[in-house]
Amino acid sequence: MDSSFFLTTLAAAIGLFTVLRKLRFHQEDNRKKDPSSSSPSSSLSPSIVPPPSSSRIWTHDVFPSFRGEDVRRDFLSHIQMEFERKGITPFIDNEIKRGESIGPELIRTIRGSKIAIILLSRNYASSKWCLDELVEIMKCREELGQTVMAVFYKVDPSDVKNLTGDFGKVFKKTCAGEERECIERWRQALAKVATIAGYHSDNWVNEAAMIKKIATDISDVLNNFTPSNDFDSLVGMGAHLEKLKPLLCIGSDEVRMIGIWGPPGIGKTTIARVAYNQLSNSFQLSVYMDDLKAHPTRLCSDDYSLKLQLQQQFMSQITNHKDMVVSHLGVVSNRLKDKKVLVVLDGVDRSIQLDAMAKETWWFGPGSRIIITTQDQKLLRAHGINHIYKVNFPTNDEALQIFCMHSFGQKSPKDGFEELAREVTQLAGELPLGLRVIGSYFRGMSKQEWINVLPRLRTSLDADIRSILKFSYDALDDEDKDLFLHIACFFSYEEIHKVEEYLAKKFIDVRQRLNVLAEKSLISIDWGVIRMHSLLEKLGREIVCKQSVHEPGQRQFLYEFREICELLTGDATGSKSVIGIKLDYYKIEEELDVSEKAFDGMSNLQFLQVTNGYRKTLQLTRGLNYLSHKLRLLHWSHFPMSCFPCNVNLEFLVELIMIGSKLEKLWEGTKPLRSLKWMDLSDSVNLKELPDFSTATKLEKLYLRNCWSLIKLPRLPGNTMEELDIGGCSSLVEFPSFTGNAVNLLKLNLVSFPNLVELPSYVGNATNLQNLNLSNCSHLVELPLSFGNLHKLQTLILKGCNKLENFPNNTTLEFLNDFDLAGCSSLDLGGFSSIGNVVNLQTLNLSSLPQLLEVPSFIGNATNLEDLILSNCSNLVELPLFIGNLEKLKRLRLEGCSKLEVLPTNINLESLFELNLNDCSMLKRFPEISTNIRNLYLIGTAIEQVPPSIRSWPRLDELKMSYFENLKDFPHALERITCMCLTDTEIEEVPPWVKKISRLSVFVLKGCRKLVTLPAISESVRYMDASDCNSLEILECSFHNQYLTLNFTNCFKLNQEARNLIIQNSCRYAVLPGGQVPPYFAHRATGGGPLTIKLNEKPLPKYMIFKACILLVSKVDHDGSPEENSMEVDIIYQNSNKKLYPALAEHLYIFRVEAEVTSSELLFEFKLGSNDVWEIGECGLVQDLEIP
Fold first, then answer.
1. Is 1097 among the catalytic positions?
2. Closest CA to 204 of 31, 433, 457
3. Which residues are bridge partners to 390 per DSSP?
4. Full-prediction pTM beyond 0.85?
5. From 133, 136, 430, 895, active-site residue
């Protein structure tokens, strides 16, 4: 579909709407030039009275009121013929018998006509019937807003108004013997009709021309009679107009220019058109200058000539004067400075366009509005336009609706197309243009046709979309085009400060050039991250692909994984042209071994990113001969070599990322690292040593988390270091030292640093430190006095420091946002009594502190606190009343506070949406500390009453409670409970009223050892835990919810019927006792397979759903209880994984598997993640026909 055709259609839809408005305001000028028009009342003016309501039922287009003896044979017959030609339906009175007065039927006809046309002729007033018609018509004009037109046929309008001349004589004769009231009604009606702008036959030389003009004007009125509904189906338009309304400020008399700004295809033009359609009737003059960038003006020798041409085009359209000549640039201001105008300049891309048509606000009269749509924000700013509406992308739901409107003609997908529609919507990147064009392309296609088209859609652009997007690209200069390609192929969704460093050698002033792309809506910069729309990314990648269609190694960037793999593993080599390679290896199924010569020819390679999966790594069994010395970014996750090539030169390297690598050391000796700023070697568990970093004088961030084998660190550049993460480096003998002081250190992570007994004193000199994480430093006993120097701390995590005894009294927590003391069981809490200002504190974790007897008083001053965690404080008895001061508190967790008895009353924490009181076993009173709670957890409490007031809690979505015998007496509770926990080991049956809990989604029966039968339960349940119900035999329920998870571990007495019910229903996940994979699973194998499934379906579907069954067996003998090995295991299959929990022998694990169909044979093989305890004994598969 041609997108320009779409816009043209929109233009045509409202084009006729402007005709009458221009007639209304410009025929005064025309009358001075056209002698055929009468001076006081010469032109059609249907806008004098508002059009009638569109909700009325119309019987005719036109009601003509006339004196037959004057006009029937000539004028009337001719105008009726013209009506017929133009498709206008007039009322014809041949069948109505005329009497002394008009009857109800004729009155209904007048009221049911959109337009009344009064043919005032010499003898019109001789008919009482005509005069009564006129009275009724004028009444409809005033009361119903009927459009009335007047034709003065061989009679002067002043004679009609003043009742003089022959017309007056006829009228007086008719009035003879009539009642005064009747005569007065006629007089008033004639006086009013004489003032209506109309047509005077004496001013027309050619009667045929007058008739044609009248019929044309009536046709125009009818075209615009009903308010346009062209835009009623536009999704999200109401929200756009609401946001635009305060910028337009229509009630103000100021002249205001408003910009509508956004990327190509976002909907700027459509928004402007809808606004124009709704507002233009309120302005004296209006004009919509359509897509200025798509309709370039003719070539001009200089700017002045171009401005004249643009101004002439503008004035011609706004005045409806096609041949207007503009001889100087003052014409706009001269003609429009006293007129209230609405101007839309669509698609402005050059400042000269604004200078020519809307340079100054004083060019236009009070109340004027000038709307400019553009992709270039800088252009608006340069013109002094501060009222700018940035058009954002639609929400996911709105995008789906837009797509569906064009693909299905409705706002939701047709049955069976839901997933396909969502995928296509995602591929269109939620860009309205893309959604419209692609939606129209799919319209009428079968489901299989959709499936066949999708692969091409994933990798290429629609031609119409490409042409619109490329227009913006082509307008860039060469440097900006090059930067655009860098972003499209490599740096979308990258932090801007990093991109600046990567490209500093390539471009002068990278930030300024990025701002240019942002101002032209080709990228966005949000929260410091560069984002490019997916369709613009595709455009950039297509442009790069065309650099060398058949030889990928000759392109600037390589991003298509199959081409990269061929290049890295085959005989072909890359060239000096290649500057960037981005390989997502985890998407590839086959194992690949990279040639040692893979990078030999790529001497200009600057950016190399290889993203391996956790269990799939690109192999380098023969090593690497060469890496470009120009590398700026080297990101190779799970790098498979133990050391870099000996000849590597990383002098220009800015960032090194090798998370999860096999590296044991980086390189021998000292390398020049003068550009290195960021290094991340986290989870490189074999890494034993780091080289000399004395040349890394710009190093800012070093991440070594979980490098378990690392024994010692080199001296680090303290003057530049901002972030250091050595959490989990359990083999480190000593804390790293710094060259110089650590004054610039902002973040320090020492998680699980077992050898840390005390912090080095120089940590106290890191006076800019904002984030310090010491969690699980289990041998840390005290913090140094210099800790008090850390005034700027925002996050302090001491969780699990169970030997920490004291907290320095001189510590200032004024800027602290997050404070975690969970599990600091040796800490003396008395020191916290002196804590001062904590007004910025948002999260406080004091869980698992047995020494906590009462809530510290400083919390009452933490008025910005949002999360308070007091879980498992086993000696906490009550909450203080000052908790009511925490007006911003959102989450309050008290689970496991086994001695908690009292919560405050008469407080309402308005912001609180989660309250967790699980296992507060002594709490008897239902909590009523907030009526805005969304999630309320009361499992394991002693509560046995529920107040009726919870019915009026508007936000309560989740209510978890334990079963108690009288719960059935609280129907208001049964209406709100979503999780029921019934763990009474003595209960023998489930009460029947449980089924009445209509919103129940979680049902826990764990450990009900005497329960024999499980009755029917609510279909709303999504998770049921009946583990350890040792006596359970019979299931009377059915499981139809495809999202259901079932746990029947250790229910060994389940009968075969119950087992079949669990196995054969389409639940998402189920575990139950069993010693072998049942025959129900048609495809079975020992161990993890492989299993081969041959497909006979024609055509082959894109995806198929199967149910898998796994039987685990232990590698070792276990004499202990099953709980000893109740851990989870990972099952891996087809690049996916599933967690099985709890891991038990003699149990079956059933779960759903989705498989992509690429051939007529599907191959499945199940593997366990690294596991020393369990292995797969058997596996099975069956197609799940119940899931679409």
1. no
2. 31
3. 261
4. no
5. 133
